[in-house]
Write a structure and sequence with these properties.
alpha+beta, binds zinc ion, Sufe protein. Chain: A, globular, 19% strand, 145 residues
Length: 145
């Protein structure tokens, strides 16, 4: 039986090698660019919101396996969700990454799915910025809607 850490590593590598939702979207989709100078990660997130729901999402950019797999998992996780649900997921993910938030504690019943594979990153503080880059960029993109 492979251990949980091996399973998590496999999930991360799978998203890194076969990134979901790569590409870009034209207007009326909104977008934002994120950069993590500590590692050289670059991410651009495109989100098409229709009727308060993420109708489509695309990711472009380059960087380390943690940043790119986190972006891929994020894109798969948010597609079809309402903007409210997406914000709850962002908050839950940032909480998992041990990032202190202002305001109420995140709803821990929000399912993380494959994203749980990234929880081991918390043990490596310099990589946390890699893991949350896509999420911060997504939040910025959504603020443009
Ligand atoms: Zn990185």
């Amino acid at each position: 039986m492979p251990g949980l850490e091996d399973l998590y590593r496999e999930i991360i590598l799978d998203h890194y090698k076969n990134p979901r939702n790569r590409g870009h979207l034209d207007a009326p989709a909104v977008s934002a660019k994120g950069h993590n100078p500590l590692c050289g990660d670059e991410i651009e997130v495109f989100v098409l919101v229709e009727d308060g729901r993420v109708a489509d999402v695309r990711i472009s950019g380059q960087g380390c396996s943690i940043s790119q797999s986190s972006a891929s998992m994020m894109s798969a996780a948010i597609k079809g969700k309402t903007v409210e649900e997406v914000r709850a997921l962002v908050s839950r993910f940032r909480h998992m990454m041990s990032i202190e938030e202002e305001g109420p504690a995140p709803d821990t019943t929000v399912a993380l799915g494959d994203l749980e594979a990234l929880q081991g990153v918390v043990k490596f503080p310099v990589r946390i910025k890699c893991a949350v880059l896509a999420w911060n960029t997504l939040t910025e993109a959504l603020s443009n809607t």
